[in-house]
Amino acid sequence: MTPLSVTPDVEQAPWSDLHLRPGDDGVLARIGLLRHGTVGGKASVAVVVDMPDGTQIIGQTTWALLRTAYAALAASPVVAEEVIDP
What we know:
By secondary structure, the chain is α+β, with helices and mostly antiparallel strands. The protein has a domain at 27-73. 19% of the residues lie in helices and 26% in strands. The chain contains 2 helices and 3 strands, in the order E-E-E-H-H. The protein has a 3-stranded antiparallel β-sheet with strand order 1-2-3. A hairpin with a 5-residue loop joins strand 2 and strand 3 (56-62). The chain is globular and about 35 Å long.
């Protein structure tokens, strides 16, 4: 299984291994579930990132990894600072 790295606060622990130029960041445009997305038949999550130059990047992880990442992010102090309207 491909690991998924989770950083609860990127400002406190920057991703210093990335070498991006200004404007390289894309926008998460779509997210969806694939019922049998893995070779073993388990559910996976696919995302589409729209890049400024018009290209699109597709990323995929298992539902189990994304669910675990969500729980870790939800427990972050950063989330506790957010005000979420009902």
